[in-house]
Amino acid sequence: MAQERNPKRQRFSLGGPSGDTSFEDYLTGNSRHVSSSSEEDFDQENQDPQLNQEEDENEEEKEGEEEDFSNENLPPRPTHRPSTTSGTATSSSSNPVHNINNSIKTTSSTLAKNTSYHILIRLLMPNTSVPITRLLHLPATLLFEQLNQALAMALDWSGTHLWKFTLQTPPSKPLNIHATPDPRREIANIRDLHASHNLGHVDKRKDLDSKKVRLLDVWGAHQRDAVRKLPMFYTYDPYGDPWFHRVTFLGVAEEGLMASDMGVELFKKGQQVWCFGGSGAPVPKDVDLEDEFREEGDRLEWDVEMVNEELRFIEVEQR
Fold first, then answer.
1. Are 58 and 153 contained in the same domain?
2. Burial tier of 253 (Cβ tally within 10 Å: 0-12, 13-18, 19+)
3. Domain ends where: 47, 73, 99?
4. Where is the composition biased (Polar residues) (predicted)?
5. Is the separation of the CB atoms in 125 and 180 below 8 Å?
6. I need a labelling partner for 125 at 20 to 30 A (CA). Which of 2, 66, 68, 274 fits?
7. SS3 letters for 174-231?
């Protein structure tokens, strides 16, 4: 809940008081004439004692009223000093980078060794007549470094370009199906921190090491819902001709689910990373030549068996 903010006090330039008027009197509209020493002596000799007493009483009464008015309008005095520690803890606990790093340090892979996730990857190409998507079955302990390899194999990317996964703040309304990453909403990047493009620069407020972050560190049941529900994008060749993909977490797979249960044939016993559906053939890297070299029918064809044959080479590391 947002805290109520007190209105700011505005400063106004009112000019300065005259040399014989105090700043307080200047603001209240009172002016004071400074008399000479002879005039002061004359006043003291000729002043009426009774009148002087009445003036003193009136002055004391006026000062008392002003003090009461000031006290009535003062804000209530705090009963205790607010704790800055709790504020810092709240801020840290709501920071996705902090939460993911905390999961890396405190959550063992053995807790999720039998857990798998299903994700949908969609290439964001508004002009294509056929959506290019892949459905993947992935162990929760898979590193994002390995997820990058799986996506390159599933979409037939060469894997020679740089890449990154991006987490964004949620939009005020649902994202358009073709919406690309918005740099203004970027709050975290998962990428290879040792790649040449970093040139030694790592932004610890945003950058996470893809060789350390596992899928469970983002989507695990122990993770905060605010982190698990963050929109995620995968960008291939971010510093050249970028290809944007939306990564959607579909949920936890049923425990013990086999590829054969979904009609998928695998080429390696115990294969943990596999594709079980999708649409659209991979696109050529140079999209300007797409219409010239590919027939309409070719855009529909892709082979899930060939994808799974490639995915068998991904070994899931346990730590």
1. no
2. middle
3. 73
4. 28-37
5. no
6. 274
7. CCCCCCCCCHHHEEEEEECCCCHHHCCCCCCCCEEECCCCEHHHHHCCCCCHHHHCCC
Ordered DSSP codes for 67-109: HHHHHHHSPPPPSSPPPHHHHHHHHHHT-HHHHHHHHHHH--G
Tell me the per-residue pLDDT of 121-147, one tens digit each, with 9 for 90 and over. 999 987 778 899 999 999 999 999 999
Q: Is there a single domain that holds both residue 61 and residue 151?
A: no
72 pLDDT more than 50? no
Q: What is the pLDDT of residues 209-233, one digit of tens each?
A: 999 999 999 999 999 999 999 999 9
pTM: 0.67
The answer on 236 and 148 residing in a single domain is yes
**Domain extent at residue 283:** 115-311
Q: Please tell me whether residues 288 and 181 are part of one structural domain.
A: yes
Domain count, the chain: 2
